Amino acid sequence: MRTEELFDLAPVVPVVVLDDADAAVPLARALVEGGLPAIEVTLRTPAALSAIERIAAEVPDAVVGAGTVVRPEDAARAAEAGARFLVSPGCTDRLREAMAATGLAFLPGVSTASEAMALLEHGVTAMKFFPAESAGGPAYLKSLGGPLPQVRFCPTGGISADNASRYLALPNVGCVGGSWITPKDAVRGGDWDRIRELAAKAAALRP
Ligand code: 3PG
After folding, report:
1. From the CB of 157, is ligand 1 less than 6 Å away?
2. Among 22, 63, 84, 172, which residue's beta carbon has the most beta carbons within 10 A?
3. Pair 199, 187: CB distance under 8 Å
4. Confidence at 143, pLDDT banded by 50, 70, 90
């Protein structure tokens, strides 16, 4: 999958923190049923790689990816577990090379024009904009679109049902990411109906 194809799957990529790999499959099913097939499982918990493995094996309609890829070795590990895309909060040369070496779609994180330009020099045109709200929000992203119209972003960080549309209205935004679709209490309590409803609302953000 090319990174641009990730943008077309849905307007929102849920960012998931999973403490229990047993929750991965029912959670992924609820998200897919709600209309959000691309799911970013963050590598912040010991359960993450096993969660990715299970979703890849048992939820064929999901496109599972790994988020919080911060060490170069995380990229290959996530790919081995079955991740189909990789997302990082920032980027270094070594991390970019490791992510590119997997052959997977990847969204390296940036928050400045210089960081975006450094990636452009390597042919990378799809990036995560992080932390979106604190780094300047939709106005900042709109300004980056002037000199750098060839870059498409997935803003993430502080995005919610209330402000997502302001990002999605920008021509340089491919999709947005966020954790608001999978609140901790709903994941821990197995409230898949609530997550399905939140996913359906998020999926409807782009007509
Ligand atoms: C992250 O990687 O933590 C994402 O940016 C999620 O941010 P959010 O919890 O503010 O949606």
Report:
1. yes
2. 63
3. no
4. very high
| Ligand 1 center from residue 74 Cα (angstroms) | 18
Beta bridge partners of 106: 86
State both tokens at 124. 């990378």
CA of 155 to the centre of ligand 1 (A): 9
Q: Which of ligand 1's atoms lies nearest the C-alpha of 128? A: 5
pLDDT in tens, 9-53: 999 999 999 999 999 999 999 999 999 999 999 999 999 999 999
User: What is the predicted ipTM?
Assistant: 0.90
| Ordered structural domains, the chain, with CATH | 3-201 (3.20.20.70)
Tokens of 52: 């990715």
Q: Is 179 in the pocket of ligand 1 (CB under 6 A)?
A: yes
